[in-house]
Every structure is written in C-alpha cells, then in structure tokens.
Amino acid sequence: MVSDDFFTKSFVIPFYKAFLGFFILVLLISGVFMEYQQHVLVAERILENDLAFLAVVGLFLIFGIFQIRFHISLMNETRYRVYHSLAFLPVPRLLRIFLGIWTKTHALLLIYTIFLTYTGISSVGLIKPILLWLILIGIFCIDFGTIYFKIQRPFPDRVISRALLFPKIPFSFWFLKHLSSKRPTLILAVKSVSVLLLNGFILAFESGNYDLRWIAFGLLSAAFLHYPIWLEKVRFETAELGYFLNYPRILIQKIRHHFVSFMILLLPELILVGLKLSSGAQPFDALNLILFFPAINLGLYGLIVFQSENIGWTKGIIATFFLIFLLIIFRVPFWLIAALGLAAFLFSVKSAYRI
Amino acid sequence: MLEVQHFKKAYNTGFELAIESLQLPKGIHLIKGENGSGKSTLLKAIAGIHPFEGKILLSGISLTKEPVRYRRLVNYSDAEPVFPDFLNLDELIAFAAETKKAGKSQVDHLKTVLGIGAFSKNPLSSYSTGMLKKAGLILAFLGNPSLIILDEPFTTIDAATQEHLRKLILSSVTDGISFLITSHLADFEKLFSYTSILEISNGKLKNG
Lengths: 355, 208
Description:
The complex is a heterodimer of chains A (355) and B (208). Chain A contains 15 helices and no strands. Chain A has 355 residues and is an all-alpha fold. In chain A, α4 runs parallel beside α7 (127-152). Classes of the chains: A mainly alpha (355), B alpha/beta (208).
C-alpha cells in the first residue's frame, strides 16, 4: 500500500508551494503582528456578531474554492495523468487518502475552527463553532465528490488558444506572462505588501518628522520584499529559458529585456513615490529616489544570480540589506548606492551563461 | 475486441479527427502517420484519458457508460511520458501497482526485462528521455490489461531495451493481451507480424 507521504508530496506540498505568498502573509499577520489576546478578542467578536461570523464562513468557502480549483487544475496537467488511476481504488481507501490530503491542505481552517471552538467553550457558546464544523464537513463532502467524479471521467485536453490582443508576446514579457499564469498569488502578495509598506513609510514621512532617508529605507525594504519574485525570475531563466542560453544576444539586448520586465513589475511603487513626492520634495530628490528603487531591485537580482551559483551567498544577501541600511543612515548619496546596485546587476548579466 | 463508432475529436486550432467505424480483433495493430496526424489523439481517446464524441467499446464494455471498468482493461504509455518530478520511479510503480493490482513478482520481472536498475530510486527529475520512456513502459505493462496502447514505444530507448521490449510484447500477446502501437518510423513494420496496419492522414483513418 502506498504511504501517506506519497500523496502529501503529490498534492499537499504543491498546494502550499503555489500559495506560499498567502500563507507567509497569514503567518506574518497572525504570528508577528498579533498577540494572543488580540486573537481571543477577534474570536469573541466573530462568535458574538452574526455579520463577522458570516464573513468567516465566506472566507472559509473562498479558501475551499481556491483549494479545489487548484487540485482540479493540477490533475489536468499531463504530468499528473498517472493519478487518473485513483479511480480504480475502492471508495474506503480513496476516502482515507483524500481525508489525509484534505486535512493537511485545510489545516489553517481546521486550526482556526479549533481555536473558535475553544473560545466558544470558555466564553460565548458553542452554536456557531458547531455550525462552522458542519460547514467544514460540507466542504469536505463537496471536495471529495468533485474529485471522485472527476477521476471517473476522461480528463479535459489541454487546449491551446492564441491571445487575441497580444498574439506574439515579446521576450521581455515572458517572465511577466509566467508570473501571471503560474504564480499569480506570489505577485499579488508581494505587490500588495510592498505597496502597503511603502505607503506606510510615506505617510510617516508626511508627518514631517523624517527626512528623505526614511523614504529610502522604505524603498529598500520594499525592494527586499521582492526577493521571492527575483528568485523566481532567476529560476525561470535558468530552467525554463535554458534553451536560449546559447543564443547570440549582445549585452545591451539583455539589459533592455531585463529592464522592461523590471520596470513593469516595479511600476506601482514608482507611481506611488512619484505622486507623493512630487509636492513634498525637491524634483531632483524625487528623481534620485525613483532611480534608487529599480537600481536596488536590479542589484538584488544580481545577488540572487550569484547566490544561485554559490549557496553561501544567502548570508551575503542579508548582509547587503544591512549594509545599504547603514549607507542610507550615514547619508551616502542615493545615486551612489544605486550605482552599486546597477554594477551588481551588470556583472550578473554580462556572463554568456546568463539570459 | 475494440470497436470505435462515429468517433470525432475536434480542436479549436481547426484540427479534426473523424473515424466513422473501426473494428479491431485481438492481436497487434499498428497505426502509422506523420507527426501531428492525430495518432496520439486517437490513442488517448481509446485509453480513456481525453473525452471524445462517439462510441468506443472494448470486449463489449463501453468507455462512455462504464469508464472505470473499461479503463481497468486498458493500459497506456505516452510517446513522451512526463510524471511529477519530485517522485522516484519506485514510488510511482508502487502507486500504479496498487491501483492496477499488480504483484511484486510482476514488478520485479518487468524491472529486469526493461533494464530498470538502481536508478528507480532516483527522483524522476534526474531522468533522461530514455529513462522516462522506460518508466512509462513499465507502468503500461502493470496489472492485468486486455489492451496495451504504446505510443511510439521504440523511440528514445537503447537498442538492447528495444529488443527486450519486442520480446515482452510478443510474450504478452501469447498471454492474450492485444496491442495498439503507433510509429512514424519506416522500418517499424518489420518488427512484428501485425494483425492490421492502419494509417492516419489529414484526420482520417485508412488501411495501410
């Protein structure tokens, strides 16, 4: 009999990998920004207020929809076709396998429902927690039914259709296309946290208690939040664009392709800084900071390229963050820090073995 | 044995494969055709992997009406097999063996015949195209199928394995298993004494 580990590797780990950004965000908010007492207060509010409870039910259902949609699309992939033969297993065995997968992929919902039940026992009451458990059982039954009937029938063909608006995607846009189709959650999570964080820094700056170094520090933090995206870019270029490594592309072409890709991805932060600083700072300072942000990101990408070739560089990247922080503190001109970032980027792409 | 009626499969790219009627008795059947002619499309439909319009029956069992019962009798090996690359071949075989009720002795025998040695413990991500092909082939022979569909089985594997595979197919035929094999290679017709040779061209099937 195949072990649970086999199904965890096949269905649970890919789920958490695909929604990594979301789970990091949840952990960050619930584990770092909130204390236990705040969790208890929120739980009591959910159990007392019908609207809040309905909101939680809605979130549970949205999570359930994302989860089942992910597993359906995973099973439609050619490499997962082997799992079509799950249909040959007896229903009790299939149920046991699916229960194992389901409890692991829905661990977040289960843990929160246990917490709400515990809060209900000690204060508000158990009606709503019991209702939530019934909803969870309902989600499980629908999920199992969906998968059960799916594996009975033939799987849909992978239909390739041409985009009407952009039938030919330029090379610079390939990574963006990859992100939007394969890692939408990653890009959404990183961009939303980055913009929110930067907005927080700008709001504090507008109080008048800080100088431009505060904004630079915000931009530095926002740039390093992009680390998972640049990590994915390096992986994408090494693995999926490996075929193009021996293409005769000159350095200027490479720089242009990277630059377009970076600028599109960093546009929200650049617009935010440009708009907010256009009235509150000197034009030269605003321009200086607008150049500073992409340069730091390009430099970070360069460091990740070195890291991909030398595993020890992970510490180097953390050290770089603090080094730039110190350079900002000690009033080293932003353009000089930007120049260092650009140098790291140029050094990483000039190699003939890089895209 | 295998019966196909009013078969139609159309794609939004404009390609369409249509077979009005096809009856194949027990034995080894060859389907020839150029790249992109629709051979794999037909095989995947017969294997119950992808949907289609029409009727497909194996020994009277309808793929549309009793899909699971039908699929238990049909095994399939892809022309270019791909699997989850985080697994190793032993894990994949163990899973397929459980679903297809294949015993340990059958697994060991097939591993020996197809020359799958210690590399079955390595992750599939480290496999060459030939090794992936062997992985697909071993899965296709597991269990007790009535029909084994092999899409381009002899491409990418080494000469010794090609010969072992040829013998394995012949011995399986004596056990009552039928084969549906495709190829675009010209010298492929000499390998077996085929019960029938068919050719797909421009989405239509004709006797070769």
